[in-house]
Amino acid sequence: MTSKSTQHKDEQEKPITYAQMGVSEYFQYDPTGDYLTPTLKGRRLVQGRYQLLTPNHLKDGTLVFFSIVLGLEMRLLPDGRLRFFNPSTQEYLRSPEESEQERIQERLEKEQERERLEKEQERERAGQERKRAEQERERADRLAAKLKELGINPEDLD
Fold first, then answer.
1. What are phi and psi of 35, to 5 degrees?
2. With the C-alpha atoms ordered 149, 151, 155, 158, is the resulting torsion angle positive or negative?
3. Residue 106: strand, helix, or coil
4. Mind listing the pLDDT tens digit for each residue in 44-101?
5. Rounded alpha-carbon distances, angstroms, from residue 105 to 22, 47, 91, 117, 118
6. Residue 15 neighbours by CB under 8 Å, 6+ apart
7. What does the CA dihedral 151, 152, 155, 158 come to, rounded to 10 degrees?
8. How many CB atoms lie within 10 A of CB 147?
């Protein structure tokens, strides 16, 4: 990312340092469009020196650089967003915002599933309690019937 405070270093110093280190590709992106024209630049190391890459332009105005190192396209969309595109799968990689939204959605779904399971368990417990209470009533009724057979009024025992 290039900004006012890093522009000189990004354009002059870093390419020299990175070339000496053997970094095979160097890309710069200025999300505000204030310091780089175009706002996405790419360079590839050829015989120890960086050469500017020529981007492809899609019909919709998207600027495209292919990174050999990543095996991905870096696409600067017409709205200024930088996205990585996998030409093998023909899909964009998730952006940080999309990844975060997916994590939030997964947490929400897990929480909903946990709540659903808790409610189901509570219904099962309530059903078991009703069944136990019914069994106790049936037992009490059998005992009362047995007492009556023996000539004892169960209500007199209270």
1. -125, -15
2. negative
3. helix
4. 999 999 999 999 999 999 999 999 999 999 999 999 899 999 999 999 999 888 899 9
5. 41, 48, 21, 18, 20
6. 26, 43, 50
7. 170
8. 15
